[in-house]
Amino acid sequence: MSPLGRILCAVDLEKASERAFDRALSLAVIGRAKLFVLHVVPKDVRYSSRAAERLQYLTELKERAKTAGVEVRVEEQQGDPVRVIVLHANARKVDIVVLGSNGRRGWRRLKEGSVAETVLRRAAWPVLIVPWDAGTGVLGEKQTRPSEVLHLEEVPLPNAGDGDVLVRVQAASANAGDSHLLRGTPLPFRLVAGLRKPKFKIIGNDIAGRVEAAGRNVTQFRPGDHVFGELSRCGFGAYAEFAVAPEKALALKPANLSFEEAAAIPTAGCTALQGLRKGRIEQARRVLINGASGGVGTFAVQIAKTFGSEVTAVCSTTNIDMVRSIGADYVLDYTKDDFAALGQRYDLILAVNGDRSIWDYKRALSADGTYTMTAGTNRQLTDALLFGPVLSMGRQKLGNLLMKPNQADLLFLKELCEAGKFRPMIDRRFPLSEVPAAVRYVEDGRARGKVVITV
Ligand SMILES: NC(=O)c1ccc[n+]([C@@H]2O[C@H](COP(=O)([O-])OP(=O)(O)OC[C@H]3O[C@@H](n4cnc5c(N)ncnc54)[C@H](OP(=O)(O)O)[C@@H]3O)[C@@H](O)[C@H]2O)c1
Fold first, then answer.
1. How many angstroms separate the alpha carbon of residue 291 from the centre of ligand 1?
2. pTM of the predicted model, to two decimals?
């Protein structure tokens, strides 16, 4: 089923940028829609040579549309732009009107009395307005410091196929992995991130937003749906106003969460869930979480509690109260207490952060306990990779986890949220223009819960 039937792209040839046409065409390709381009000539206006150039561009656009299998009709009308656009939208029963708008924030800051604002006010038909500057995104270029390589710039709408969903991003969240992608460290990361420079121009894993359009093979989502999702398996791109994802990378947003809260969940929430599951959380009576106060840790504490386990959280002095507030039964301050020396045994240890040897973890495990490492220092990682398989030959199991994003886990977490069993902890919010500061803040390793980007 085609989610979009007809698109009306109404332009003033003097002002419209070529990008406006490109975006309308991208939407038409994604939605398999017919595209009507209407250029309205206000009375008594004589067009300049610039308008002629755009007419030429429209001719080229029609050629490209033909190649993409999209039908385009171009019409010229004289008169008052608002009247003409409204009349045409009514007559054609369009699904989306593409209009230009002034200002970087697009329709959210439409100038009062402008054509776009008046059309939006008078709209009697289902309509979404796509601002000309819709493609603003944060790009990364070299493997070095985030603040030096990330910058905001206009980018085209991402390409989407028949199985893809185009999402207008409302919020994203930063992850420790962002700086690994930018720096290409540790070295094995370069297999994903690019050997000599980042492969992905726009980084960012986690999004929450509104479905703008859905490809014809998409069955689960419709334009207007609120979704959240994880993009690391489909080219990243969360730090932008629009992102594209296959439907399996997304799920409907938990109804009781804001976009910001929902964007905090995918990477960190799925990592916590998969780490706990790998540690057989269903059978674990006593759980220890090292690094309990960061993005992954705050989810791990709350999720472990939903399985009925007794949770001991390890963090620094400043985070003790916060970690207790999200449900930890016991809190160890790693600046004073050494969990491995206290003589306690845990059925499951999740090492989210920290710098302990695998032998310390092994000592704190019960006879058939499981230790899962999601991150921490290089020592934690190499220990788990080198010694994990050998130490797992008995009843104890010790190893690492590489999170695999998937829709089933997103849905599981959505249900927990909607049942009121957990809520993301948000430390800070940064606007899209300050993604470098957000990435740097997370990189410093002191975030208390998640860092969110508001788009
Ligand atoms: N394996 C995977 O697939 C996977 C997936 C996602 C993330 N990760 C990794 O998981 C790690 C954690 O991610 P995250 O999002 O939770 O990071 P994060 O939010 O940046 O973690 C920050 C937290 O770590 C705590 N911390 C720092 N040093 C610590 C130490 N020595 N011992 C205990 N806690 C310490 C800090 O708390 P205090 O200030 O209280 O110390 C802070 O609250 C990252 O390295 C990330 O790359 C792995």
1. 6
2. 0.76
Instruction: Name the residue at shortest CA distance from atom 46 of ligand 1.
Output: 176
CB 275 less than 6 A from any atom of ligand 1: no
- Residue 155 contacts residue 23 (beta carbons within 8 Å): no
Please state, in angstroms and rounded to a whole number, the distance separating the CA atoms of residues 364 and 234. 38
Quote the tokens at residue 96.
């989306």
Whether residue 174 has its Cβ less than 6 Å from ligand 1: no
Q: Does 449 sit in the ligand 1 pocket, CB within 6 Å?
A: no
Mean pLDDT, rounded, of the chain: 86
Closest alpha carbon to 61 in 93, 35, 40, 84: 35
* CATH class of the domain whose range is 137-265+432-441: alpha beta
Tell me if 445 CB under 6 Å of ligand 1: yes
d(CA 330, CA 318): 15
- Ligand 1 atom closest to Cα of residue 318: 40
- C-alpha distances (whole Å) from 251 to each of 265, 276, 444 are 12, 21, 31
> In the prediction, which pLDDT does 7 show?
83
Give pLDDT < 70 ranges for the chain: 1-4, 14-20, 42-50, 100-111, 123-149
The Å distance, Cα 365 to ligand 1 centre, comes to 21
Q: Point out the ligand 1 atom lying closest to the alpha carbon of residue 316.
A: 40
CA distance 348 to 370: 5
**266: Cβ below 6 Å to ligand 1?**
no
Q: Is the CB of 447 under 6 A from ligand 1?
A: yes
Superfamily of domain 268-400: NAD(P)-binding Rossmann-like Domain (3.40.50.720)
> What architecture (CATH level 2) is domain 6-122?
3-Layer(aba) Sandwich (3.40)
- C-alpha angle 44-93-161 in degrees, rounded to nearest 5: 105
Q: What integer pLDDT is reported at residue 160 of this predicted model? A: 82
pLDDT of residue 393: 94
- pLDDT at residue number 105: 45
Q: Tokens 């902890």 label which residue?
A: 425
Tell me if 35 sits within 8 A of 24, measured CB to CB: yes
